[in-house]
Amino acid sequence: MTGLGRLLSIGPTDNTSRERTPRQPLQLIPEGARESFVPYSRVQPALLSAEADMTRLAADLPRAAGEAIEVSGQLTDEFGRPLRGVLLEIWNANTFGRYTHKEDASGLPLDPNFLGLGRVLTDQDGKYRFLTIRPGAYLARPDIGRWRPKHIHMSVRGGSSRLVTQMYFANDPHNDGDPMRILMGDAFKHNVAGEYDAGQPDLAAGYRFDIVVGGRNATFFENDL
Amino acid sequence: MNSITPNKRPATNEDTCGPYFPDPFCDADRMDLVEVHPGLVATARGTPIVIEGRLIDIDGNLGNGAVLEFWQPNDRGIYRTPAHADHPDIDPWFDGYARCRSKDGKFSLRTIKPGALADRAPNVTLTIFSDGISRLVTQIFLEGEAANASDPLLTSLPEPLRSRLIAKSTGANDRGEQVFSIDVVMAGNNETPFFDDLES
Ligand SMILES: [Fe+2]
Question: Which of A166, A193, B53, B153 has the highest CB neighbour number within 10 Å of its CB?
Fold first, then answer.
């Protein structure tokens, strides 16, 4: 009945990964216990429409510094079935590479017009859309000059779907040295958004980022669909 | 190409949560599953308990800034999923899902002592999202439960690892609720067993 699953890899040059990555292979879950490992998130917050526009603090306030971009896409499981009514929590650094989180001690400039967090729910087709500021890259390891490439954090939660991921930009010079990008190997391409013309003069670009929630947790319960 | 096999889409990679998960996202989340709200009479059925824990890294330091999710059945062992929507033992005041971002690596969950169905021992599923790692999942059991000896998950582990998933009873709080305590060691000596929910 016992068995071993994946051995997780440590992200190169990532101190926190060294500190927190289990050294033992994961254990396989016995079939009789499998369902108990699928949390079901039934309650979704009531969102304000302004939460989908991270480029300003409120509709009547100035736009944040940097390039405003649109990000849109579809959430599906591996079979292409849309994940409906799922919460997407989004956070990213400002154009200077600074988060508004109190624990970001980088000293990079804050932008008084940018909080860097947003939330959207997917629609009946699993689709979503939000606006944000193209994040700046930031120096994650000053001691060795290793940067984090531009990225947008996203957390997917709803029903039995759960995924925490990051969206990356093509051709960012810092992509290649990123610890998680190195661990992803060729599959990194699934986390890189495709650029399109957002068709609005005030938006620098649009990015298509389709999210495929994999594994059995994606849509464990039929009623999710 | 095989036209019968569905053309599966490649999954988006999991990634780290980074150190800066925004605390405001957790404003509507709960770490007290007993009382629906302090100002309401709505209270879950069963025996309130408290599970306290610490995330420990390979150097013995607390793992700060992680997002923790908890998932458990109600006092009668029923998970609140669509599959059990009409189950007679559903507790309308109990969802069984909790989440927090732990600034310092410690957590305290006030909940109902989970019931157990069939051959399972009472347990709470813990998911960890953090900087440096992708999602980790494990289950927390409670000291003193006879069913621990025969739980299929616990007994699937080599014997020396089992106790690492069992929260120890540390007495009662001032409300008379039993308090349990567990160290979740992410890496290194006494490493907590984590489970593979992608390949299991
Ligand atoms: Fe980040």
Answer: B153
